[in-house]
């Protein structure tokens, strides 16, 4: 798993590349735990190159969801592959998290 960051004044975009499993979820958790993230307005997760997500990977997002909501930081997923989106939908996470088709849609949220 590789995580690439791009930041602006109000938005942090994290591009996930590879498989988000138990071992790589620690890296993602470290990124999402950085205090400066709570000073942004949006955290955009680019899932175009995310090939797989395990329960541990989902757990990282779920564990940060309330913290982001409390800080008024929007968490938005975009470019999600169908097989990854299906996991979110089966677990009902698509009703808890914002998932949009494109980066332009994510920026507009």
From TrEMBL:
Check the record and name the InterPro entries matching this protein: Anti-sigma_ant, STAS_dom, STAS_dom_sf
Annotated Pfam families = STAS
Could you tell me which residue ranges the STAS domain spans?
Answer: 1-109
Under CDD domains, the record lists:
STAS_anti-anti-sigma_factors
Q: Superkingdom of this entry's organism?
A: Bacteria
Gene Ontology molecular functions:
anti-sigma factor antagonist activity
State the similarity comment: Belongs to the anti-sigma-factor antagonist family.
Q: Per its UniProt record, what NCBIfam families does this chain match?
A: ant_ant_sig (TIGR00377)
Protein's name according to its UniProt entry: Anti-sigma factor antagonist
What species is given as this protein's source?
Hymenobacter lapidiphilus
């Amino acid at each position: 798993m590789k995580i690439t960051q791009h930041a602006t004044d109000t938005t942090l975009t994290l591009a996930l590349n590879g498989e988000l499993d138990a071992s790589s979820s620690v890296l993602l958790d470290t990124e999402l735990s950085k205090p400066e993230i709570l000073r942004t307005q949006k955290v955009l997760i680019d899932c175009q190159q995310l090939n797989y997500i395990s329960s541990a990977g989902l757990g990282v997002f779920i564990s940060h969801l309330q913290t982001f909501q409390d800080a008024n930081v929007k968490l938005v997923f975009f470019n999600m592959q169908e097989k990854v989106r299906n996991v979110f939908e089966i677990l009902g996470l698509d009703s808890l998290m914002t998932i949009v088709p494109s980066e332009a849609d994510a920026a507009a949220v």
